[in-house]
Amino acid sequence: MTVLVYLDHEAGAIRQASRSAIAAASQLGDVDVLVTGPDAAAAAKSAAAIPGVKKVLQVTDTTGSSELAEPVAALLADLASGYSHILAASSATAKNVLPRTAALLDVQPIPDIVAINDADTFVRPIYAGSALATVKSADAKKIITVRASSFDPVASEGGNAVIEEVALPAGPGGSTFVATELSKSERPELESARVVVSGGNGMQNEENFKLLEPLADRLGAAIGASRAAVDKGFVSNEYQVGQTGKIVAPELYIAMGISGQIQHLAGMKDSKVIVAVNKDPEAPIFQVADYGIVGDLFTILPQLEAELDKAG
Amino acid sequence: MKVLVPVKRVIDYNIKPRVKADGSGVETAGVKMSMNPFDEIAVEEAVRLKEKGVVSEIVAVSIGEPKAQDTLRTAMAMGADRSILVETDVVTEPLSVAKVLKALVEKEKPDLIILGKQAIDDDMNATGQMLAGLLGRPQATFASKVDVADAAVTVTREIDGGSQTVKLALPAIITADLRLNEPRYASLPNIMKARKKPMEKITPADLGVDMTPRLSVISVAEPPERKAGIKLDSAAELVSRLRNEAKVI
Q1: What domains can be seen in chain A, in order of their start residue?
Q2: Is the ipTM beyond the 0.90 threshold?
């Protein structure tokens, strides 16, 4: 069996989540990968160095077509004949493209898997992680997205795969790429950060939310947010941790003023160590926190910074 | 211009789902059910387009058990003009639902199909993309802004780390993300009015669609519980524990 993994990359560097998807794919068979975009050549080089990758398919495209679901889904459907499974890390890109590919192949996709039982049977969360369903697919081919935090990423160096250029089909047309706007940040990527500092409703407003930055700076942390903080406009939704946002599993997760709604817990409960600061002693976040402080976060935040400076 | 809005009846998002003792699924009997929150956003967007004079008719569709008609009444109370209930007691999957919707699109010929990006029960996030694939029509998933002008729709989409804008020729498929709008509550007079709006009832067989699921559920289980830890009194103690006990800083 050979598995095709559609990789996400940023300016040629393969995202860690995609290396987790390769780890999942390795449990199923040999691994080929696909990279697309204007920086596909650089990404292909990085991908070829990943141990366990046999072949890299590279689509160099500067027209913006590779940003669109329609042609990429058509490409994956064309390539599918050579593969038993098509995988990708659960990202906005993969969720846009893979279900469309599945429709073209008359396959029911299997999103967000957290475990592989055998070539047909997978475990995936449902109801925002309130339950885990084990499902068996009757389809000849499987189209799967992988929850990256459930699979340890493979190494990024040590392999030597062949690289092959493939062409992007035109697709059905009707869609035009206009623009991408990325927000700039010096901080580590939320999904791969070793430490995440998140703020919730308790941060009160956009101005106060920025008070998390000095703490995050001291810990080299990414900044996250609960849905309540996003809905109230404290930060934009790319910060959102939870079932409908990012799923994270850092070594240390610090929840400041987050009550711990089910949908937030679904996004962070696999973190190694969880710290919660909340003024409500009954807040559900304390049921999953390893260390909790009941109190006013605006008092505790500067104390925490001072303590870190002291001992560090 | 006509818009088709598919809606799903799911366990209300405020209710914590309980896994059945026999591990066959999640208990829905006697549990409060509501319209999938992302579908509410889709209905709201269609209604706003109608209020702007861009859209002339909104057709809501639901596929599922007879009680899904409650969800269709809600959609009509929000502003949909009529509805179609496709009755089935088979477990619905995005693939089978997309096939039903494709058949309805071919019959109804809408210019725009707006769906929620994801149902909060099976969390599949697939039906819109699959419908677009089956129809061979353009798609814009995870929409946070929708502009219809000159037989085209410009959509701003949520992507990892920012946003993306695409322009689609109509007919097109859009899936709604959280920030697209804030859905209205249906007013009592509108709820009363919705009772009189037309609802057509058909079956997947009428549309020639085979609903047989491709995924069989082997088991459903509670996720492993995380244990509550300890409460500390000071920031100093926390930093000391993180450094010396948990060894994460």
Answers
A1: 2-165 (3.40.50.620), 190-311 (3.40.50.1220)
A2: yes
Q: How far apart are CA A60 and CA A114, in angstroms?
A: 31
Nearest to A290 among B137, B223, B229 (CB): B229
Residue A183 has pLDDT above 80, yes or no: no
Pick the CATH number of B2-244 from 3.40.50.620, 3.40.50.2300, 3.30.1490.180, 3.40.50.300: 3.40.50.620
Task: Pick the residue of A290, A294, A298, A305 with the most B CBs within 10 A to test the interface with B by mutation.
Answer: A290
pLDDT category of residue B243 using cuts at 50, 70 and 90: very high
The end-to-end CA distance of chain A, in Å, is: 51
Q: Is A261 annotated as a binding residue?
A: yes
A157 in reach of chain B (CB within 8 A): no
Residue A128 predicted with pLDDT over 90: no
A58 labelled binding-site residue: no
Taking the CA of residue A82 as centre, how many other CA atoms within 13 Å lie in the half-sphere pointing to its CB?
12
Helix (H, G, I), strand (E, B) or coil at B142: strand
Q: What is the pLDDT of residues A27-85, one digit of tens each?
A: 999 999 999 999 999 999 999 999 999 999 999 999 999 999 999 999 999 999 999 99
In three-state secondary structure terms, B108 is helix
Task: Give the pair of three-digit tokens for residue A76.
Answer: 């994956």
A93 near B CB under 8 A? yes
Give the tens place of pLDDT for each residue, A199-233: 999 999 999 999 999 999 999 999 999 999 998 99
Check whether A226 is labelled as a binding-site residue: yes
Q: Does A248 have pLDDT greater than 80?
A: yes
Residue B12 Cα, gap to closest chain A Cα (Å): 11
* B148-to-A34, A63, A178 alpha-carbon distances in Å: 34, 24, 15
CB within 8 Å: B216 and A176: no
